[in-house]
Design goal:
The chain crosses the membrane at residues 6-25. The protein is mostly helical. It has one helix and no strands. The protein has one domain (1-26).
C-alpha cells in the first residue's frame, strides 16, 4: 500500500511537470508566430 501511494504521488508530479513544459512550449510558439 505504501508503494502505491508513492507511485501515485510521482505520477501526479510528472503530469504537473509535463503540463508546465507543454504550456511553456506553446507560449513560446505563439509568441514566435505573433511577432
Amino acid at each position: 500500500m505504501f508503494w502505491i501511494i508513492i507511485m501515485l504521488i510521482l505520477i501526479c508530479i510528472n503530469k504537473m511537470l509535463i503540463m508546465l513544459i507543454l504550456g511553456d512550449i506553446t507560449m513560446r510558439f505563439m509568441i514566435m508566430n505573433g511577432t
